Amino acid sequence: MTEEKIELELEEEDGGPFLTRLSDEERAYAEKFAERINPANTVMILQYGSAAQKKISDFTDSGLRSVPSNDLSEIAEDLNRLIEALKKFDSDYDRKAQLKKSFRSLYDRAESKVREAARRIELHRSSLLRHITMLDRTYASILNIVREFDMYILAGKKCLKVSREVTLPRMVREAEASSLRQDTLAAADFRDGCDRLERKLYDLSVSRELPVQMCMQVRAVQNSDAVMSENLRNLSTNVFPLWKERMMLALGLTGGPDDVDPEVFHQTNKILLSSLGSIVKIHENGMKEREKTLKALENK
Predict the structure, then answer these.
(1) Which domains does the chain have, with CATH numbers?
(2) Quick one: pLDDT band at residue 15, thresholds 50, 70, 90?
(3) 3-class SS of residue 15
(4) Residue 297 · residue 64 · CB < 8 Å
(5) Considering the entire predicted model, what is its pTM?
(6) Which of these, 123, 124, 126, 134, lies nearest to 66 by C-alpha position?
(7) What CA–CA distance (Å, rounded) separates 88 from 85?
(8) How far is CA 134 from the centre of its chain?
């Protein structure tokens, strides 16, 4: 069997998802790199792929932990503070309704709380967008490490197949023909080197799973941030303005009839409280996802 035939068989065997992540240039580099691998060189095989393993180890120590989570905590605090203010607004409204007092000062205090929340929400949204961009870079960096693992594994598989099906049989034939002990030992050492390379490739395939999992975890955290950002935007652009408009109508503060509509008031407040409660729930899920991600990395 010739080396050219082995290359074609390798292409057919690994031409699925394993190679689709590599460009033609990367595949060509890996196949050329395979020619420089020497299974008989014990030190070379023991260190084979260690650069990629070190990269992912270093990244695990510093990668996702560098993504700040302070903003999510502050978002929750701001939203919960606004929820408490709206609940107080609701109870104060009922108390003043019984006393038939003006609701203007009551509304002004609540509206200032909403306005301040809207301002802080825009700051949080900007920060979340920066986090999402940072996570895009993080994902790209991890994906490059995955591709590096793929090139090491491809090159190693090519070398192992050629070594076992071309080089080793030739060495065995030469040892049998020469009857020299040194040729026999060389063939045995080469066979041991092939076994060592095979174990190393398995080790690399196991190590490769960590960056693959990290890519999935980065996307999960990023999606959580994106959902939070979208919901905060909906608060600022839709929910808050609608609340102000309907609340002023309910309290008779638009220059129209002075009759207060308690049903519209409570329903309007309920809508905003429901929206805030949903976002707080999203925040809790996002924090759980981050904790799950970091815990998974620590257990790898």
Answers:
(1) 3-299 (1.20.1170)
(2) very low
(3) coil
(4) yes
(5) 0.75
(6) 134
(7) 5
(8) 11
